[in-house]
Amino acid sequence: MPRSKTELAVVGAGPAGLAAAVTAADLGLTVTLLDAGARPGGQYYRHPAPALAATHPQAAAPHHDRRTFTTLLSRLRAHQAAGRIAYVPHHHVWSVTRADPTRTDPTWTLHTRTTESAPTSVTAPLAVTAPAVLLATGSYERHLPFPGWTLPGVVGAGGAQAMLKGGLVLPGRRIVVAGSGPLLLAVAGSLAGAGARVPAVVEAAAYTGYATGGAAATAALLRNPAKLAEGARHGAALLRAHTRLLTRHAVVEAHGTDRVEAVTVARLDRDWRPVPGTSRRIPCDALAVGHGLVPELSLATALGCATRTAPDGTVALALDADLRTSVPGVWSAGETGGIGGAQLAVAEGALAAHSIAQAPAPTRLRRTRTRLRAFADVMGAAHRPGAGWQHWLPDATDVCRCEEVPAGRIRESLAELGARDARTVKLLTRAGMGWCQGRMCGPAVAALCAAAGAGAGTDTGTDTGTDTGTDTGTDTGAEETAPAPDRRPLACPVPLRDLAQLPLPAAD
Amino acid sequence: MMQSRTRPPERPPRTHPPTPEHPVSYKLTFDGRELPAQEGQSVAAALWSAGILAWRTTRTNGAPRGAFCGIGQCYDCLVTVNGRPNQRACLLPARPGDTVTTQEGTGRAALED
Ligand code: FES
Questions:
Q1: A5 DSSP assignment
Q2: At what angle do helices A442-451 and A422-429 cross, to 10 degrees?
Q3: Percent of chain A scored above 70 by pLDDT?
Q4: Does A116 contact B at CB distance below 8 Å?
Q5: Prediction pTM value
Q6: For B74, how many CA atoms within 13 A lie in the half-sphere containing its CB?
């Protein structure tokens, strides 16, 4: 592998990272493409291992954008064969550091560790050094807790989709799909297509939100007919599957002892507060739930890249027209710059590659990016959680799944123990200190802080790895105070032996 | 907690040699019960296809958990495989003859190194 000569290191082989790597290689750069996954494609283009796909011919059925993916893949294989791209799967990049802090032009070292997907022959931690880094780390799902959300059978909507795409399995036979955002219809469509009965899709927002966003929003919608058609296709498939679409409704409780047996659904007011007397029970053996996606910024914020609050309420990277972050030598593309979907990610990856290769970017790419970003903003704003959701969160319900911290303890730390931000809440309650490092509870903790009038989080600059994920998932004035970046010094749990192998920093 | 339901295996074992139409399918055990798995499935996928949704109990409340995010982010799917605890079942490929056991608490009970 031409690692020593790598001119660009790309983190993530999803739509953005793949497009960036192959475009940069087209433009003459040598690229190392690092990915935690077993196969290229990321979450959107996730597909089963060839042996498994062969048993289920329907899995090979064309999914949206399959052609784009097939093209990206064959370009990747060609560049690999020519030695221009070193593709490294099964490796999670857990830290990016300056290779030589004394140099004015940055050189980066990317530290990796193998994931569970790696074959036993691939175990050594690997470090890659490159003058330019492109972070295409994508996103993960946003969750708003409710009673029963830790029961087996309650799975992420994206999680259900991922298990279906990658493992061809379903969590149950009768699956309610709930939460908010365009992903829900796609997930419901896939589950129904795979043979599940989907009695209802429960969407907290009202789709009329798309239409009430003013002239700019209307223009963004009209300039994206393909996106609207995609929505209509999902809708039609669900109609055929006898699925009810309940908008302005939420699952406010999941019932069961060892696993989910039913959910309670309630109507929501404009602020997402459950309307009393509107509850009804829907029997099911699984619930796929999610409230949109959150940019995965661990590596970017650890590097100090500037962030912004996106219209959906999440913290995204602040990027310029050429996908540069605020840190020289570091670019980012796709969901890290704001949730926007695979097509946008592909366009941004290609744009970033032009910038890194110092080649003029095609106008077409810039136009595509502007158009799709505008659409994503309208969509994000329409599905942004209203603060009233906290009314379906009783004190006894765990907010932090890893450390089993109930909402009451978080509220107590804010109301009685004097916590003024998510960081202090974390220290007092352990919310966000577990394995997932606040990825699951971060948006909820930030919202509870905001509701208590505390800041979503403050970054003291002396990071000790104790920040809760402070994604400021909801409003209540979150925009006025700049949201604290979701800082974690390590992007995943790292064994001490890997840390011990790091070179010692030069003495001051 | 996991119920000790005894039911017959969902699928009869395949006996013919693996071909694209009939790929490798094999057995693993979960808490002593034999389950069919297919080449290319993760441990979580093999468990889901047998209708098993929980394979861990939490440290504090002993509550049952299984896969939640499906993509390696939530760590809810931690499991002990062949005596090695704390592995993410959603990422770990199932291998023939794997012994999967419910992981309790920190999973360190069986920790060797
Ligand atoms: S299901 Fe979340 S890490 Fe495996």
A1: G
A2: 110
A3: 83
A4: yes
A5: 0.86
A6: 24
Query: What's the CA-to-centroid distance between B99 and ligand 1, angstroms?
Result: 19
Tell me if A38 and B20 make a contact (CB, 8 A cut-off): no
Least confident span in A9-13, A213-217, A282-286, A370-374: A213-217
Give the Cα separation of A98 and A107 in Å (integer): 6
Q: How far apart are CA A288 and CA A155, in angstroms?
A: 5
Chain centroid to CA B75: 14
Residues 6+ positions from A177 with CB-CB distance below 8 Å: A157, A184, A187, A188, A191, A198, A200, A201, A202, A287, A288, A289
**Distance between terminal CA atoms of chain A?**
34
Any A CB within 8 A of B84 CB: no
B83-89 own/partner pairs: CB under 8 Å, 24+ apart: B83/B110, B83/B112, B84/B110, B84/B112, B85/B109, B85/B110, B85/B111, B87/A116, B87/B43, B88/A115, B88/A116, B89/B42, B89/B43, B89/B44, B89/B47, B89/B55
* CB-neighbour burial class of residue A405 (10 A; exposed 0-12, middle 13-18, buried 19+): buried
- Are A258 and B54 in contact (CB < 8 Å)? yes
The H or E element that residue A457 is part of is none
Question: How is chain B split among helix, strand and coil, in percent rounded to 5?
Answer: 10, 30, 65
Burial category of A442 from C-beta neighbours within 10 Å (exposed 0-12, middle 13-18, buried 19 and up): buried
pLDDT tens-digit readout, A382-422: 999 999 999 999 999 999 999 999 999 999 999 888 888 88
Interface test with A, best of B69, B103, B111, B113 (most A CBs within 10 A): B69
SS3 B39: coil
How many residues appear in chain B?
A: 113
CA distance linking residue A498 with residue B47, whole number of Å: 31
**Rounded CA separation A148/A162 (Å):** 22
Q: Flag whether pLDDT at A280 surpasses 90.
A: yes
Can you tell me the mean pLDDT for A494-508? 57
Q: Which residues contact A167 (CB under 8 A, 6 or more apart)?
A: A48, A52, B41, B42, B44, B45, B48, B49
CB burial of residue A369 (10 Å; 0-12, 13-18, 19+): buried
Q: Is A214 exposed, middle or buried (0-12, 13-18, 19+ CB in 10 A)?
A: exposed
pLDDT digits (tens, 9 = 90+) for A455-469: 554 333 333 333 333
First to last CA, chain B: 28
pLDDT tens sequence across A21-67: 999 999 999 999 999 999 999 988 888 888 888 776 665 554 557 88
Q: Does A404 contact B at CB distance below 8 Å?
A: yes
* In contact, A248 and A206? CB cutoff 8 Å: yes
**How far B29 CA sits from the closest chain A CA (Å)?**
18
In this predicted complex, what is the ipTM? Answer: 0.86
B83 CB-near residues (< 8 Å, 6+ apart): B99, B110, B112
Distance A295 CA to ligand 1 centre (A): 17
Chain A partners within 8 Å of B57 (Cβ): none
